[in-house]
Amino acid sequence: MKIAIIIIRTLIGLLFLYTSISFFLNLTPEPVSTGNFKAFQVGLVASTYLMPLAKTIELLCGLSFVSGRFVTLANIAILPVTINILLINFFLTPQNMPIALFVFLGNIFLIYSHWENYKGLFVAKG
């Protein structure tokens, strides 16, 4: 189990590092988008803050996953991003679903593997 945690954490971390660094340094050309995804992407770019925010979170969480430090915090911080990646790909670009599923399920697996660290979040104090 420990080896699986390290492998999944590292792969997801490297993927987030690659996508965020590529975004900030313009290392890869933007893929051509069409239809509803293009309209959605235009809206994201028009917001001016949303893509840099998401890519900053991906960069910080990618560093955390690769280094193995603050993984519990990174799992929670990246969860909304992975949910959006999954839903965007499900509804707008289904051909990218395998990667989206890997990222989302990997994030859920990492949360499950660190579940002891999250138990305090679900205790009702009266």
TrEMBL record:
The membrane spanning regions, by residue number, are 7-27, 39-63, 70-91, 97-115
- Name where it mostly resides: membrane
Q: Which Pfam families match?
A: DoxX
List keywords of the entry alphabetically.
Answer: Membrane, Transmembrane, Transmembrane helix
Topology versus the membrane: Multi-pass membrane protein
Source domain of life is: Bacteria
Quote the subcellular location field of this record. Membrane
**Per its record, how is this protein called by name?**
DoxX family membrane protein
Q: Identify the species of origin.
A: Flavobacterium gawalongense
